[in-house]
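[step 3/7] fold_predict: job queued, chain A
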Amino acid sequence: MSRPPILINDLVRGNQVWKMHIRVVDVWVVTEKNGNQHLEAVIQDVKGDKIHVTTLGRDFQDWIEVVKEHETYFLYNGEPVDNDGPFKVCANPLKLIFNGGTTMSKVAIPEIPTHSYTFHPIESFLKADYKHDHLYDVIGVLQDVLKTQMGGGGRKSCVNISLRDVEGNVIELVLWEDYAKQFNNYTTPNNFAGPTIIVLTHAWCKLNTVSGLPCLSNAWNGSKLYINLEHPQVDEFKASFGSNLPAASQSLTYDSSVQSNNNFWTKLSEVKSIRAVSKFGRDCYATTIGITTGFNASRSGWYFESNGNTDAERVTKFKLEIEVEYDNHKGIFVFWDKDVIQYTKHTATELREIMKKAGEDM
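[step 4/7] structure written:
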């Protein structure tokens, strides 16, 4: 006689033999430091309760072919253990390990509800109502692009943006590496008038070391970034603004290392003189004014070759030094690859080829 199915909340440590009806509501691949991979997921039962699932690395190829997001299954056997990892994606005190006795059979179970997000309010983060070892789903309308940094030279790609909610609460969100690239790839070619709604799953909250305010970032494994996602909860979020939903930030049409009207980064009412900037004893952000007096003729020229062992790996990039003057004080502004491309509409490689064809001495 077949044993009856149990619910997620019926799982107990030590009981590895059972049957359960579930829906996979989230699934992602974790790449470990040694390069090995394993699959993790969140499953949900008919009551809407969820639990974090992790698989063994040796079974990666088997499970990645079976576990599909949004599908429903009969799930047999597994090992419930304490949910004591450094970051928790579910509030459940247990997590589930798929072991050698675990099997899944795909079957239609329409009574199990489809996935819905549990968005943590921006206001709650600002009031320190969050746990440092928990990961949260967040939603907000893009208010501003605070800072962008291209990868290379030992630096990671990142984008700092700000999100706001219907009450006007604003929080900073830092997107790293692939998430930064995904954001830039979406926003750079999209110069539209409508709002940009950002959804980030498994977001981590910590205090910004500069401002001391709560700041969100993607987790290195498991976060998913959605921009203008077509989803009923996103539609509901947009509708909550009524006619006050802001248009896309002007910063979306810019492409510089720092472009913002946010006073934390660029205090336009506190413009620093070139003389004052030259006396800064640490790295910081400031606004200054200068009149261009000419190009700075340096031995390095106007471009450099990025690191690489072969010609194919080396890339020509801009490094342009401009001499500026204001109030009898001079300074040097350095414009890097990303900034110069914005104005010239050419990469350094393209410009070198144009100059060669024109007979210019490189």
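[step 5/7] annotate
Residues 178-187 form the longest helix (10 residues).
The helical segments are 60-66, 122-126, 178-187, 232-239, 274-278, 337-344, 348-357.
exit 0
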